Amino acid sequence: MSHTTWTPMIFIVSAPSGAGKTTLCDKLQAEFKNLHYAITATTRPSREGEVNGKHYYFLTEDEFERRLKSGDFFETAVVHGYRYGSPKSPVIEALRAGRDVLMNLDVQGAAVIRKCVAAAPPGDPLHRELVDIFVVPPSLETLKKRLVKRGKDTDETIERRLKQAKEEISHWQEYKYKVVNDDLAEAYDNMRAIILAERHKTRNRADD
Amino acid sequence: MSHTTWTPMIFIVSAPSGAGKTTLCDKLQAEFKNLHYAITATTRPSREGEVNGKHYYFLTEDEFERRLKSGDFFETAVVHGYRYGSPKSPVIEALRAGRDVLMNLDVQGAAVIRKCVAAAPPGDPLHRELVDIFVVPPSLETLKKRLVKRGKDTDETIERRLKQAKEEISHWQEYKYKVVNDDLAEAYDNMRAIILAERHKTRNRADD
Which of B178, B190, B203 to mutate to test the interface with A (most CBs of A within 10 A)? Predict the structure, then answer.
């Protein structure tokens, strides 16, 4: 009788900008060493402090195109003229190595991965449990205060972000879990609880 | 937007004798004040230190019979000539008051409640999420060592308990979650995680 293993799974975290998603994902990676954090590929130049393979995979247009043609992206998007894509192969490698995968995605990206995983037939490395979590601010008023306090955006940008947040939040029911980030410690306790609980689902047990 | 409430649910914990179920349930009650711990009714006399309404509802034969006839028991059993029953009304009252219910049941008892809750039609106070957790010792060898160390049982009783444990453990796949109690702190962390995670399931959210 061995009771220590589970079938590796895919965790998706989505949240409107300013809900604290990045902080929560960083904390999850710090606690759960087994988590593989899926990184986005992009053709935009790296900014100061950004590390290739840690924050993004920085690719040339040619390399991006080559990978796209070989079918290595779950999804791609163009933002401000630069291309972005979620590479499949590192996700599949991590799952094969027995690691859970953590993906930080917007509502549209999450929908694509959800569909892709649901369509994976038995035997396919992506045929597995997908656990999606939507992180929300306690209210739009709180979100606005946080964005103002952060001081990174103009009033106009803040209004645009709020409008976008409202639209994104309307999708919360597409997710399996919803965590309100009012108090960071409490929100994190709930996020880690979801990971621990999912690993203890009978149907996810890889043991006897 | 209020995000702090969930639809109260029923948690069932089952485990073979010696797996640490009582300690884990006590710890859950200490942390989650909202949990209503469902108590069994019995016609057996109270033992030293047992409190009516805390450890058991101690009933006379007549009172037990009256409640049985009024349909107030989920299930009843006879052990060593005494009657035992799981009363429905305190569970329903707790759920109506917005409290989650924690039931400590054997495999047979859990099966009865599971069936009863699954059969409850919409509008029925029992029509709700049932979350069942099976707690197992790391191995039958460990369980044996624990029972020997506890020093409460004869060799014969220990052998009987082990045989029963083996039979009970064979039912683990009937449960939604399985928690191995190797290290108590770790097992407890996983138990509380299950409660927290279930409260954050989108479909259990009572808010917007």
Answer: B178
ipTM: 0.90
* H or E segment to which residue B148 belongs: helix B140-150
Give CA–CA dist A53/A37, Å, rounded.
Answer: 10
Is the pLDDT at B3 greater than 80? The verdict is: no
Rounded to whole angstroms, the Cα distance separating A80 from A91 reads: 26
**Multiple choice CATH, A1-35+100-208, 3.40.50.300, 3.90.850.10, 1.10.10.10, 3.60.15.10:** 3.40.50.300
pLDDT in tens, B94-145: 999 999 999 999 999 999 999 999 999 999 999 999 999 999 999 999 999 9
Structural class in CATH, domain A39-98: alpha beta
Domain B1-35+100-208 matches domain B39-98 at the CATH topology level: no
Is B200 in contact with A177 (Cβ distance < 8 A)? Answer: yes
d(CA B84, CA B56) in angstroms, rounded, equals 10
This prediction has a pTM of 0.91
